[in-house]
Amino acid sequence: MSKLDPEAVIDMTSAKKATFPTIAPGLLLALSDGLVLALVGWTLNHFFATDALSDPVQAAAWQRSLVTGLMLVPLVKSVFGIYTLGRFDYLERTRRTFQAAFLCCAVLAVPFIVMEGFRSFFVEALSIALLGFAVTYVADLLLIQGLLSSALDWRTPVMIVGAGPQGAAIAEKLQRLPWLGMRPVGFVDDDDSLWQTRVAGLPVMGPVELLSKSPAIARQASAAIVADMARHGSDLTGLVRTLPFRQVYCVLGEGNVSAVDATYHNLHGSLALRVSVRPPTGYLRIRRAMDIVLSAILLVLVAPLMLGLAVAIKLDSPGPVMFRQKRWAGGKQTFDLLKFRSMHVDAEEQLQQLLENDPVAREEYMTYHKLTVDPRITPLGRFLRKTSLDELPQLWNILMGDMSLIGPRAYMPKELPEVGDSAAVIGTVRPGLTGYWQVSGRHRTTFQERVAMDVFYVRNCGLLFDFFILCKTAVMVLKGDGS
C-alpha cells in the first residue's frame, strides 16, 4: 500500500499461497544488487586502481577497502529490511536507504576517529559504500518500475471489502501504481444496491459472506483490503476472522491519520498504531532560509531564459506576459501567484462556454479541476506547461515569502469549500512550487486525492521528505511530464 494509506496487517491461520512467492521480489532485488555491486567493483578496480596495483601493499589495502565498502551495502540494507519490504513506494524505500547509508557512515566513523593509521582505508571504504548505496537505489527503482511493475503474476491479487468512495479510491490507486505490488480483482460489500455493478472498473461480486461461502470467488484473491474500518467499528475483528485469507489489510485513512514513521505495537495482545506528529517549527525556519537562498540563486541563473520566454509569449499571442491569480495562503490571507501566461486572454469566458455546451468536459473539470484537451491554452502555452517553464516566475513569490519551493498546492479561494476541514491543516504551511501531489500522479489525480496528499505532506514534512520530492520533481521535469 502507498504511505497515503498506512495499514494494519493481520495474519490469519488459513494459508493461501500467492501466485508469485512473496520471497521472490526480495530475492530478485538482492540478486540485482549483487550484480550491480559486482559491476561497480570491477569498474572501480579497472579504472581507478591502476596506481595502487603497482605496489603490493597499496594493492592489498585497496582490495580491503573495495571489498569492505561493497559488502557493507547489502548487509546494512538487509538490516533495515529493504529486501523484505512488501511495499515498493518511493518514499519508504528512500527513507530506509538514507537510514542505511547514515548507519554505514556512523559505523565507519568510530574507527576513523580512533585508528589514525587506518584513516585512508576507512575513507576509501566509506566512499565506495556510499557509491554502492546510490547505484543500487537507482537500480532497485528501475527494476521495480520496469520488470516487477509489468509482471501481473508478481502482484498480489486482492479483494477489496467495501465498494464505497474509499474503496473505489484504493482500487484506482492500486491500478494506477502497479509498483505497490497489489492487483485488485473485485469488491464485496453488504450494500445490496451495489451488487452486480462495477466500481473503478471492477465487479462488486456480492456480500462479504460470499467469500466464505464461495471458494471459487475466494480463490481469485490471495489477500483482502478492508477499505473503511470506521464503517465496521467493533465488528472489525469478527469481520477479519470471517475472511478466508492469510493477510488482511485494514486501511486506517486516506491521509488524515498517517505518518511516514508510523509503527505498530503489541499492547499485551492489543494492536496499537503509533503515529508521530512532528512539530514543524524548527524545520520551517530551516526551510525558509533555504527558500531565500535557492530562489535568489535560481532567479539569477534563469533570468536570460525568462527574458527569452517573455519575448516568445508576446510574439505568440496578444496579451500580457505574466498571469496573476489570487491564491489562498492560509486563514483569510491571499497572494498574487505569478505565472507566464499560457492561455488566451479570454480564457475564463471560453471555459464557461465549454462547460455549458460539453457535458463530458464539465464532468472532467468537476472531478479533476483540469481538462485533458483545453482549447484555452495557446500553442506556446502547451510547451510551457509540458516543461513546467510557465511556473518560473513563482521563484519571485518564493523569495518574497508568499510560497515555498516545496509545499501543498496553492489553492484558489473558490476551491476552499471543496477542501473542507483539511484547510485547517494545509493552511499551516506556505504553498509550494512543487509538492507531494505534483510528483504523485499530478493531473491524473482527483481533486480530493490532491487534498489528501497535501494533508499527508503537512503532517509528515521534513528535510528527507523534501529531498525525495525535489528528486522526483527533477525527474518529471526532465521527462516533460507537466500539467
Automatic annotation (TrEMBL):
<feature type="transmembrane region" description="Helical">
    <location>
        <begin position="62"/>
        <end position="85"/>
    </location>
</feature>
<dbReference type="GO" id="GO:0016780">
    <property type="term" value="F:phosphotransferase activity, for other substituted phosphate groups"/>
</dbReference>
<keyword id="KW-0614">Plasmid</keyword>
<dbReference type="InterPro" id="IPR036291">
    <property type="entry name" value="NAD(P)-bd_dom_sf"/>
</dbReference>
<protein>
    <submittedName>
        <fullName>UDP-phosphate galactose phosphotransferase</fullName>
    </submittedName>
</protein>
<feature type="domain" description="Bacterial sugar transferase">
    <location>
        <begin position="287"/>
        <end position="479"/>
    </location>
</feature>
<feature type="transmembrane region" description="Helical">
    <location>
        <begin position="121"/>
        <end position="144"/>
    </location>
</feature>
<comment type="similarity">
    <text>Belongs to the bacterial sugar transferase family.</text>
</comment>
<keyword id="KW-1133">Transmembrane helix</keyword>
<keyword id="KW-0472">Membrane</keyword>
<dbReference type="Pfam" id="PF02397">
    <property type="entry name" value="Bac_transf"/>
</dbReference>
<feature type="transmembrane region" description="Helical">
    <location>
        <begin position="292"/>
        <end position="313"/>
    </location>
</feature>
<dbReference type="GO" id="GO:0000271">
    <property type="term" value="P:polysaccharide biosynthetic process"/>
</dbReference>
<feature type="transmembrane region" description="Helical">
    <location>
        <begin position="20"/>
        <end position="42"/>
    </location>
</feature>
<dbReference type="Pfam" id="PF13727">
    <property type="entry name" value="CoA_binding_3"/>
</dbReference>
<dbReference type="InterPro" id="IPR017475">
    <property type="entry name" value="EPS_sugar_tfrase"/>
</dbReference>
<keyword id="KW-0808">Transferase</keyword>
<keyword id="KW-0270">Exopolysaccharide synthesis</keyword>
<feature type="transmembrane region" description="Helical">
    <location>
        <begin position="97"/>
        <end position="115"/>
    </location>
</feature>
<keyword id="KW-0812">Transmembrane</keyword>
<dbReference type="InterPro" id="IPR003362">
    <property type="entry name" value="Bact_transf"/>
</dbReference>
<dbReference type="GO" id="GO:0016020">
    <property type="term" value="C:membrane"/>
</dbReference>
